[in-house]
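Hey, why these numbers?
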Amino acid sequence: MKQPIVGFERDEEGHWVARLACGHGQHMRHDPPWQLRPWTETEAGRASKMGVVVECLKCDRGEPVE
Protein backbone atom coordinates (compact mmCIF):
# COMPACT_ATOMS: atom_id res chain seq x y z
CA MET A 1 0.00 0.00 0.00
CA LYS A 2 1.40 3.38 -0.94
CA GLN A 3 1.94 5.82 1.93
CA PRO A 4 3.52 9.30 2.07
CA ILE A 5 6.52 10.08 4.24
CA VAL A 6 5.47 12.37 7.11
CA GLY A 7 8.66 12.49 9.18
CA PHE A 8 12.05 11.01 10.00
CA GLU A 9 13.64 9.61 13.14
CA ARG A 10 16.74 7.60 14.00
CA ASP A 11 16.66 4.00 15.18
CA GLU A 12 18.77 2.62 18.05
CA GLU A 13 21.71 2.09 15.65
CA GLY A 14 21.55 5.62 14.25
CA HIS A 15 19.98 4.71 10.90
CA TRP A 16 17.30 6.99 9.48
CA VAL A 17 13.72 5.68 9.52
CA ALA A 18 10.96 7.35 7.51
CA ARG A 19 7.71 7.65 9.45
CA LEU A 20 4.82 6.99 7.07
CA ALA A 21 1.28 8.41 7.24
CA CYS A 22 0.00 4.96 8.24
CA GLY A 23 2.22 5.05 11.34
CA HIS A 24 4.71 2.43 10.18
CA GLY A 25 8.43 3.11 9.92
CA GLN A 26 10.64 2.25 6.97
CA HIS A 27 14.44 2.36 7.03
CA MET A 28 16.07 4.75 4.58
CA ARG A 29 19.71 3.73 4.83
CA HIS A 30 22.63 5.23 2.96
CA ASP A 31 24.98 2.24 2.91
CA PRO A 32 27.13 2.34 -0.24
CA PRO A 33 27.49 0.46 -2.46
CA TRP A 34 24.31 -1.47 -1.63
CA GLN A 35 21.92 1.36 -0.81
CA LEU A 36 22.54 4.82 -2.21
CA ARG A 37 20.47 7.43 -0.42
CA PRO A 38 22.87 10.33 0.22
CA TRP A 39 19.86 12.62 0.77
CA THR A 40 19.41 10.98 4.20
CA GLU A 41 22.65 12.56 5.40
CA THR A 42 21.37 16.16 5.50
CA GLU A 43 18.34 17.87 7.00
CA ALA A 44 17.60 19.53 3.65
CA GLY A 45 17.81 16.17 1.89
CA ARG A 46 15.35 14.57 4.28
CA ALA A 47 13.03 17.59 4.06
CA SER A 48 12.99 17.22 0.27
CA LYS A 49 11.48 13.74 0.67
CA MET A 50 8.58 14.78 2.90
CA GLY A 51 5.33 13.77 1.21
CA VAL A 52 7.03 11.35 -1.19
CA VAL A 53 4.90 8.23 -1.56
CA VAL A 54 6.59 4.87 -0.91
CA GLU A 55 5.32 1.30 -0.77
CA CYS A 56 4.56 0.17 2.80
CA LEU A 57 5.06 -3.58 2.88
CA LYS A 58 3.97 -3.67 6.52
CA CYS A 59 0.53 -2.36 5.48
CA ASP A 60 0.43 -4.92 2.65
CA ARG A 61 1.07 -7.67 5.22
CA GLY A 62 -1.51 -6.26 7.64
CA GLU A 63 1.05 -5.65 10.39
CA PRO A 64 -0.01 -3.46 13.33
CA VAL A 65 1.65 -0.09 13.84
CA GLU A 66 4.63 -0.23 16.25
In short: The chain has one domain: 2-60. The chain has a mean pLDDT of 96.
